From TrEMBL:
Residues 7-195 form the Class II aldolase/adducin N-terminal domain. It comes from Lacrimispora algidixylanolytica. Pathway: Carbohydrate degradation; L-arabinose degradation via L-ribulose; D-xylulose 5-phosphate from L-arabinose (bacterial route): step 3/3. Keywords: Arabinose catabolism, Carbohydrate metabolism, Isomerase, Metal-binding, Zinc. It comes from the Bacteria. One of its GO terms (molecular function) is aldehyde-lyase activity. Belongs to the aldolase class II family. AraD/FucA subfamily. This is L-ribulose-5-phosphate 4-epimerase.
Amino acid sequence: MLEELKRSVYEANMELPRKGLITYTWGNVSGIDREKGLFVIKPSGVDYDILKPEDMVVMDLLGNKVEGDLNPSSDTATHLELYKVFLTVGGIVHTHSPMATSWAQAGRGIPCYGTTHADYFYGEIPCARNLTEEEIEEGYEKNTGLVIIETLQGRNPMHVPGILCKNHGPFTWGTDADNAVHNAVVLEEIAKMNLMTELLNPSIIPAPQCMQDKHFMRKHGPNAYYGQKKS
Ligand SMILES: O=C(CO)[C@@H](O)[C@H](O)COP(=O)(O)O
């Protein structure tokens, strides 16, 4: 089972350069086996051109390295905080994909302007605030995870499977590592479309709520509202 997870997380990591979401060593993908209480993550600083399945690092939910010769990703503490709270999440991705990272650097959330967005993300894809100096001092990666959780407070993470971290970049998640990468690709496409949409129509407003509801509910069921059930 663990070998299967290492292989699937390795394959998911290799999708990032294939889909143009990262350059060099940027970004990372992890996947969790909740029965074992272990998650697998990309090693830190390893170029995807030379990454191998056996390079994957196995971590426990206390943040200890259980298996692997290399250091885990520098973002491991962020993945860990999210796994501890987002209990339905099976995989997490961080990238520096250019368009989503540009929205993150601009400190803007990504509004829902169309059905492409609404099929995967219910409502705005938020931009999490900057960390304070104290939070950075205390632990940048851990507090990045806590600020992501704070920003999504009250929303089902599987209804908004991604977020932007201001002046940093996007994090996405999903049912497993492969699904998390899928959501990272969709997020980058939406970021690209929205930039063009705002250029073509600077006074654009979000798509009608009834359209957003229809498109999201048709894939995610009738109760996929912001934390409350529609009567
Ligand atoms: O966001 C950052 C650096 O700004 C990191 O995500 C790096 O892009 C990848 O770090 P490793 O996973 O290789 O430690």
